[in-house]
Every structure is written in structure tokens, then in C-alpha cells.
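User: Need the bound-state model for N-acetyl-L-norvaline:
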Amino acid sequence: MRHFTSIKQFDDLKAALEAAKYVKANPFADQALGKNKTALLVFFNNSLRTRLSTQKAAMNLGMNVMVLDVNQGAWKLETERGVVMDGDKSEHLLEAIPVMGCYADVIGVRSFARFESREDDYTEKILNQFIQYSGKPVFSMEAATRHPLQTFADMLTIEEHKKTARPKVVMTWAPHPKALPQAVPNSFAEGLSMTDYDFVIANPEGYDLAPEFTKGLRVTHNQDEALEGADFVYAKNWASYEQYGQVLSKDMNWTVTKEKMALTNNAFFLHCLPVRRNMIVSDDVIESPQSLVIPEAANRVVAAQTVLKMILQDL
Ligand code: AN0
Ligand code: CP
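Assistant: Bound-state model below.
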């Protein structure tokens, strides 16, 4: 059974990108593949893009789709084993997951880092229980440590817009008022490490990502230096990994502004969205012709459809 929880599960990234280009050009070519198959999308957290693009992807493949918002309308779920359930949680994940497995052929899960325990988050406690107990192929719609469908869409967007074979790609931390997960930057770093692009990560001190995701990659604490000559600027906030889940800085000198973009090689701007304007990026940069945030979001359908297609082909 094929699960999809990391971009590294593509044996061949180039082939996966080619498959995505085919899906993009022929969105309804595989309608027979999903006929009478049901995708269940389970959300423990909010979503706009993932929710809509994954539904659209499944529908393009001829699938039926069900969406469950665990925190709205379903029973509150206990996730710890051994707990005396005398509180507000009416059901345990250990029953809920196999029940969901009875109703679906493929299950997508969104389960963000909870920032309660670094170990629980980095062992993907929730996602792995779906893999273990649902009996069905499971794909991540952003779990605690990775957001592979986002990364796949990001990489397709870069592929479509790059002007040289080895573009310079800078992933920069930017300020945000609340603690955000490391899933998007971890995953992007993982994806870029599979390419031969000139890739640099810029973040303030205290914000280095988990070593398992940055091994062999260039990391600098000097944003201006990183931006020099960049062809793509990928902005993202994340909370500290070292001081797990904490917001150590809201330094607005890290906001991606017109002045910052002037240091680059007329770079394209990327962000996974949702984005807080004038915290992460200024209005003029996100509205500029170099901003790819909308085509990047559009590619989320292509990414999800390509992965769902691979899963269906393996059923
Ligand atoms: C989430 C995050 O940073 O991981 C989802 C991004 C796709 N963002 C927010 O919660 C604002
Ligand atoms: N980029 C992304 O995953 O957006 P949503 O959180 O809206 O799904």
C-alpha cells in the first residue's frame, strides 16, 4: 500500500514532476481510475487551499469525496492511550480511525504540530496512527513535520518559472505574531535537497530547523546576504525548533519588502498562503508581477491529483 507523507517518497522527483505536468495538461484523463472510490479528508486544523484543492483533485479523478472536520461536528477525540476518559472527549482515536477506514479507500489527514511535545510532533504521533490503524493508504495534508503536497506544488511552480537550470532559491524566515509549525519549511528544505539548485535558508539565530532537515544545506543568519542574486524567494514563518514552539523574534527587518527584493536577481516571490501581509511580505511585493502565490496555490490541485493518481494506481 502506498502512503504519501514526504516528498522523499518519490523514487524519482523528475518523473514525478513530469507526471504532474501531464496531469495539469490532461486533468480529466483518469476519470475511470477513481470511479466508485472514496477519498476521506480528515482535518484536525483549518484549511482553505488544501481542503478545496484536494477535493477538486479527487473529483477530477472521478472519485467521491467526504470531508470530516474533527473539531466541528465530530466527537471530540482522545489521542492518548491509557487515559480514563472522564473529561470532554467522547471517543478515542483508536476506534475512530478504523471506523473511518471502513468508509474510505484513501484517507488524507491534516494534523499540525501541537507544540505540546517535540517528541510527539516529530514522531508524527497522529499521522502514524492513521497509517497503522486505518488499513487504507494515507496521505498527508500537512502533518506535524511535513507538508509534502505543498512542497510538490512549490517545486512544480519553480520548475515552470525557472530561467536557468540551477536557479538560486532562498527560503527565508519572516515575522509572524503567533507560533507556526515547521512543517512547510522542513518539507521545502527536504524537497530542495533533492535538486541541484543553489539553495540557501536564511533565518534568525534560534530558528534553525531540525538538523535532520538541514543536513548538508546552507543556512545563514544574514538575510540580505542570502537574498543577493536570488531567482526565487520563498518566505515562511516558523516557531523555534530549539526552544520548541516558541516565538523568539518578531523582527520586522525580516519582512520581505521591495527593498529586500531589490537585492535579488528580480526574483519571483513564493509563499504557501495563508499569509499575513506587512508581517511576512509587504503589499507591493505580494501584488507585484513577480509574485507567484496564486499560480502556486493553483498547482496544489495538480500536486494532489498526481499523488492521488499514484495511490489509486497502486490500490
Ligand atoms: C499553517 C502553517 O504555517 O503550517 C499552514 C500553512 C499551509 N499556517 C497557519 O496556521 C497560519
Ligand atoms: N497552503 C495551504 O496548505 O493552505 P491551507 O492551510 O489553506 O490549506
